[in-house]
Specification:
Largest sheet: 10 strands, antiparallel
CATH architecture of the largest domain: Distorted Sandwich
Shape: rod-shaped
Number of helices: 5
Distance between the termini: 103 Å
Number of strands: 14
CATH topology of the largest domain: Glucose Permease (Domain IIA)
Radius of gyration: 44 Å
């Protein structure tokens, strides 16, 4: 057989006649004409088809895991997906840790009531000379008998509640009005979009009753004015004053930011309240 294939290979470009003899009947013979080149091409194609068929059987059956390493590819894809989820979860945990740190800092550092005593014209008018060493005095609620209270003339800037607020007032920040007063959907103020870091000013004299951080609204400031008015500012990137500070109209109380889960872009959420009732700020500000 080997010699026959060798001779056919040598004469692969010629047409040959193949004679087949029967050992039991030597006088009977069969002859076939063929071209060795086509024969070898057909034989090679048959072998390739058999190999491809075997590979296909392995690929579509569990036996393919031994040949194509499909399980490793599947495991690798799963590992990559798990890694991506772990990275996303780590980012969420870092954000949560930062929020918890801010909450702990506020709880740890915040005093019950704080009055800042500084060198002011009012101080000089009362005492005749500037305060040589400005200081901060903190008053805490006492549980002892005999509660002590401050008299009106003992509180510096106690005149902040003696006058009336003049409306319409200047808006807390110059920007674009992007959200209006919609109390039916829980939006009790207006949104003013501005560049991040822009100064935010208080609309009138008052005292800061809350300078805090919340998960939904980020850094927020509540200012109590005369006649029971309260102005609220949310989503600051940073605050300037603390709870208990006396502030005057136009003082910078914070910077525009986008802190808090409810923030969508740098802006200030501004609210007006009076005696516990929400007001439409557009009626009290020069927003047009």
């Amino acid at each position: 057989m080997k010699s026959l294939l060798k001779k056919l290979l040598e004469r692969r470009r010629e047409e040959v006649t193949l004679l087949l003899f029967d050992d039991d009947n030597p006088h009977q013979q069969d002859s076939y004409k063929l071209k060795p080149g086509k024969f070898f091409a057909l034989l090679g194609g048959f072998n390739v088809a058999v190999v491809l068929l075997i590979l296909l059987v392995f690929y579509v059956t569990p036996l393919g895991s031994y040949l194509f390493n499909k399980e490793n590819r599947t495991i690798r894809a799963s590992v990559i997906q798990i890694h991506d989820r772990v990275v996303a979860l780590q980012d969420s945990l870092d954000a949560r840790d930062q929020q918890l740190y801010e909450i702990q800092r506020i709880i740890r550092d915040r005093a019950d009531t704080v009055f800042d005593i500084r060198s002011t014209p009012e101080w000089e008018a009362v005492y005749g000379e500037p305060d040589p060493e400005p200081q901060t005095v903190t008053y805490r609620i006492s549980h002892a008998r005999g509660v002590q209270s401050l008299k009106g003339d003992q509180i510096i800037h106690s005149d902040v509640f003696s006058g009336e607020i003049r409306f319409p007032a200047e808006p807390p920040v110059t920007g674009t009005l992007t959200g209006r007063f919609q109390p039916r959907v829980g939006h009790y103020g207006i949104d003013i979009a501005a560049r991040k870091g822009t100064d935010v000013r208080v609309i009138a004299d008052g005292v800061i009753v809350s300078s805090d951080w919340t998960i939904n609204n980020g850094y927020t400031v509540h200012v109590l004015h005369s006649d029971g008015y309260v102005s609220i500012y949310k989503h600051f990137s940073e605050v300037i004053y603390r709870t208990g500070d006396i502030i005057r109209k136009g003082d910078i109380i914070g910077k525009v930011g986008e802190t808090g889960l409810l923030a969508s872009g740098p802006h200030v959420h501004f609210e007006m309240w009076k005696n516990g009732v929400s007001l439409d700020p557009e009626y009290y500000l020069n927003v047009n």
